[in-house]
Amino acid sequence: MQRSFKHGHQGKQVKNQTLTEVLMWLWLGKVDRAVNVLSDLKEESIKNTTERDNLIKYLHRNQDCIPCYALRKKLGLRVSSNPVEKANDLLVSNRQKHNGMSWSADGSTSLATLTAVCRNSEDRQWLLHHDIHFQFDAIAQKPAACI
To answer: Can you tell me the distance from the alpha carbon of 21 to that of 145, in angstroms, rounded to the nearest whole number?
Structure first.
């Protein structure tokens, strides 16, 4: 099915409908279906085909990392990266930004790892035994059938 974005009110409706459909497929973890929706758009009707093509490439490149958010929500698991982003802010960004430092990827990863180990009071365990006790929250410990 070919889709197009016409000028004016109808074009906006088609754009919103396409966006809604792409997001719906991504929510379900169906990356190929979302890519098909984007690929079916008529090139002459898109303002910036490069942006569309970049999005398709991004989706293909990251397909293995895009979960089924609907299932995660049903299982009571997080569907947001907010905790991860905040942890990064606390562990790495604050220190690097305010000290005017430039860091390599390895340096940033090392800093994040060491800071996380210290914040979780695992530094002594790691230094003495080269071991870390990973703990999951209660909901993650339940089998899916119990949720």
So the answer is: 30
